Queue: 2 jobs
Job 1
Amino acid sequence: MDETTRKSEGEKSEDKFTETTLRRIELSDVDDFMEWAADEKVSQFCTWDTYTCKDQALDFIKNIAIPHPWLRVICINNKAIGSVSVTPNSGCFDTCRAELGYVLAYKYWGKGIVTKAVKIVVSNIFQEWSNLERLEALVDIDNKGSQRVLEKAGFLKEGVLRKFKNIKGRSRDEVIFSFLSTDALQE
Ligand SMILES: CC(C)(COP(=O)(O)OP(=O)(O)OC[C@H]1O[C@@H](n2cnc3c(N)ncnc32)[C@H](O)[C@@H]1OP(=O)(O)O)[C@@H](O)C(=O)NCCC(=O)NCCS
């Protein structure tokens, strides 16, 4: 293969990922969902345990993901390859804030897909939820890829919350990031 051919194939594959879209999850996404939910590389920094069977996934999609206030699957050509969610603060007060979460199937990592998905969320969620002023994200101290996503999407790193979350039986330090409704959107 010559240099020109390699370059044009590379460009094509980059183009493919600029078509990243978000949509609501459906029960028929279950097999694609298992691609990331059953993968320990994906779940290692997440509070949920790695999925072991399709029934667990169907139960989650039906009872948690579909009724969730704001959960979308990240898609390439309408195939679900990950998800992104915004969960309102659970207290009666402080409806001004909500927490961002995301996950992507391993084979799609490192192509800018979640950064693109987060930018789409940030550019829409403050209009959709007029009370929302602060979108926050908590990231394991060792999850450098996720921290980089938030930096690229324009979030501000505010500090480290020590021993803040229990992940797979260990209390972990979490880096806290925020994006305010008044912050500048990134290109
Ligand atoms: C974290 C995750 C969402 C990133 O998604 P992604 O689509 O691969 O992210 P992007 O390609 O948009 O950006 C990743 C950035 O992190 C960087 N990165 C990845 N691993 C890194 C590491 N170990 N150290 C430093 N930077 C790293 C990449 O180089 C890239 O930055 P760059 O564009 O400046 O080169 C994905 O890896 C994932 O689903 N992980 C498992 C689930 C998870 O951790 N979710 C977040 C919980 S808070």
Job 2
Amino acid sequence: MIVCVCAGVSDREIRASIQAGARTLGDLGRGCRAGVDCGACRDMLRGMLGARCHHRSAEAAATTKTGT
Ligand code: FES
């Protein structure tokens, strides 16, 4: 699915950028050009970044609980 129509960037490309270390809208813009034009996709990009951060927080909490 195309998330950023301006740059023609798909959700897969965005997830790949996040997997590769993108943590901010600026990182995504530099990495895959998403969100750098009209800005209509930025709420969705923030949601994808937030979901990744939430996932990482859950991983950290699980690691803390298990001590692994
Ligand atoms: S839709 Fe992403 S910058 Fe326009």
